[in-house]
Write a structure and sequence with these properties.
The protein is of the alpha+beta class and about 130 residues long. Helices cover about 20% and strands about 35% of the residues. The radius of gyration is 13 Å and the shape is globular.
Length: about 130
């Protein structure tokens, strides 16, 4: 199980990588392993301002559909175009090619409420 130290995490199993005033968001290695084979990712919130913990999309696996939650407030400025034709990249490379959205950070203070890699690892029991 992979828990990169340079990322922040949510209790809902999203990860956040800060790049200046932008945050790249995806689902964690733990989440994709729990979901199983991901067959479809639906994100139709590009251009929208969303609050912390608002649903920004869904991910569909063979056995379930899960909501995706905003880790922090912000404007969705990009959706990973690769996920339409290659949703399995979330399983294969959740922290790289499987990223979901990029958002413009509205309140950088919210980042301090996210979990560290060690805290997230403890949350998942790994």
């Amino acid at each position: 199980m992979n828990f990169p130290e340079n990322l922040k995490y949510t209790k809902d199993h999203e990860w956040v990588r800060v790049e200046g005033n932008t945050a790249v968001v995806g689902v964690t290695d733990f989440a994709q392993s729990e979901l199983g084979d991901i067959v479809y990712v639906e994100i139709e919130t590009e251009g929208e301002d969303l609050a912390h913990e608002a649903v920004f999309g869904t991910v569909e696996a063979v056995k379930t559909v899960s909501d995706l939650f905003m880790p922090i407030s912000g404007k969705v400025v990009a959706v990973n175009p690769e996920l339409q034709s290659n949703p399995e990249s979330v399983n294969k490379d959740p922290y790289g090619k499987g990223w979901m959205i990029k958002l413009e950070i509205k309140d950088a203070g919210e980042l301090t409420k996210l979990l560290s890699a060690a805290d997230y690892k403890a949350l998942t029991g790994h």
